[in-house]
Amino acid sequence: MTVSVVVPCYRCAGTVGRAVASALAQSAPPLEVLLVDDASPDGTLAVLRELARDPRVRVVPLAHNGGASVARNAGWEAARGELVAFLDADDTWHPRKLETQLAFARAHPEYPMTAHTLAYAEDPVLVPTGTDVPFTEIAFRHMLYRNWFHTSSVVLRRDLPQRFAPEKRYGEDRQLWLDVAAAGQRIARIDLPLVTIYKPLFGASGLSADLWAMELAELETFRGLRRAGRIGMPLLCVLLGWSLARFLRRLALVALGLRTRPAQ
């Protein structure tokens, strides 16, 4: 099985080289790494073209900035691998990340989408050898109350018909996972921290800093599920209240300067 790695790039000249290096250093190397420049106004594109001196790396420049959804979809459409793996430009992968997910995909073809847990940069990461890895099936109902997957952990079949919602600049990842699950596709989370992140999950630089915009996007996701007939009105009310309670908790954590650890 072949894997195309899609990296959305916007103002990431300082971190994208580290991310690409982690993808190219995989024990099961990818077929290609697609660097999608989302019309960065700085020197990012020049850095990407320098990285593309490696024949395994391709640059996909976009004429207009459309956000991470548009960039990831563009890379997805350009991908040639049987599987597509997403990697954010400020994250890195464990060297055995693709090896582990490819082995799982071969052993469990009933799961067209897999993900895994994550770690912070200072956390020790030990990945056991062997083909049997601990995993949990994550159903649609599980994802209503929490986003279980960091985007840089996801590998999915290229031929899945769902895509990131191009109109969304926040919460687009969770929207896709819900759409895939609602279509009856099975999703597995491998319980190993195979991606490293270098900032808190929210309240830091980047899109995650805009907490209110993130909250509005989540509320709209739930309303969209209701309009599509995937949840009833009583459940919608529960989810809206749950979401707002979690939003207030995030505000309190940021105000207190407390770092948010990844939920495992």
Task: Indicate the CATH topology of the largest domain.
Answer: Spore Coat Polysaccharide Biosynthesis Protein SpsA, Chain A
Provide the low-confidence segments as ranges.
none
Which overall shape is indicated by the principal axes computed on the Cα atoms? globular
Number of helices: 8
Description:
- The protein has 264 residues and is α/β, with parallel strands linked by helices.
- The chain folds into two domains: 3-197, Spore Coat Polysaccharide Biosynthesis Protein SpsA, Chain A (Alpha-Beta Complex), CATH 3.90.550.10; 207-255.
- The chain is 36% helix and 19% strand.
- The chain contains eight helices and nine strands.
- It has helices at residues 16-24, 44-51, 68-78, 97-107, 140-143, 172-182, 211-227, 233-255; strands spanning 3-9, 32-37, 57-61, 83-86, 92-93, 113-120, 135-137, 155-157, 187-197.
- Strands 1, 2, 3, 4, 5, 6, 7, 8 and 9 form a nine-stranded mixed β-sheet that branches.
- The relative contact order is 0.14.
What does the secondary structure layout of this molecule look like, with pairings?
Blueprint: E1 3-9, H1 16-24, E2 32-37, H2 44-51, E3 57-61, H3 68-78, E4 83-86, E5 92-93, H4 97-107, E6 113-120, E7 135-137, H5 140-143, E8 155-157, H6 172-182, E9 187-197, H7 211-227, H8 233-255
Parallel strand pairs: 1-2, 1-4, 2-3, 6-9
Antiparallel strand pairs: 4-8, 5-9, 6-8, 7-9
Keywords for this entry:
36% helix; single chain; globular; alpha/beta; nine-stranded mixed β-sheet; Spore Coat Polysaccharide Biosynthesis Protein SpsA, Chain A; 264 residues
